[in-house]
# Entry
Amino acid sequence: MLAIVGGSGLTSFAELEVERREIVRTPYGEPSGPLTFGQLNGHAVVFLPRHGYGHTIPPHDINYRANIWALRQVQVAGIVAVVSVGGIRPDIHPGAIVLLDQVIDYTWGRVSTYFDNPDMPVTHIDFTVPFDNALRQRLRDAAGQIAEPMVDGACYACTQGPRLETAAEIDRLERDGAAVVGMTLMPEACLARELDIPYAGVAVVVNHAAGRGDSKFSISTAEIGRTLDQTMDRVRALIMASVAKPVALQP
Ligand code: HPA
# Structure
């Protein structure tokens, strides 16, 4: 069973035929909400909106450890994470859907490991390639099937938020090699790796990053909302196509 972790604009999944909701307790506290189990396109999935069902939890307050632990507890075979981002690279514009291939973490003060207690002593996971290749291929195939012109390959810069960046900060992220910027992929991605859960990130570009394109002097939050509304149908179609293959449970 695949898990879908929804971001801004994806707090519910209309096409999901809901079977049950389950409150999962974890040693790390409460996840962002109950897990929603159901059938998507005829396949079992579990859905969790990381900002909560009412989009009330800001990026720095999300209990990432509880969310990923809860998904492990129900034995998901992989996680498709949907995140909204600003586009930095000149070919990445609002409305694009992007398959991520790398991450740079600029966040601070977020609890970002499970390996911090006597039961789970320090372990340095390999994170050279942060996303799962098989899951990425599944998403690529799905995009091909529905003729979605997904941008394949982009480095995600994870900032602390909740404010958006300055133009100079975006210049720096670009010099660092980032193609898109968001606030939520970390530590989610590395926590999934710590628990050996395959994880892939699909980014929805909702604005030009600060100082770029039509965000040269400011970022319009109204426009972010509009782009989200216009793009989410395509994101849901992509996810629906991507779950269409059965997923083998991990040993
Ligand atoms: N910066 C950071 N996070 C974001 C942005 C952005 O421009 N757009 C959507 N999430």
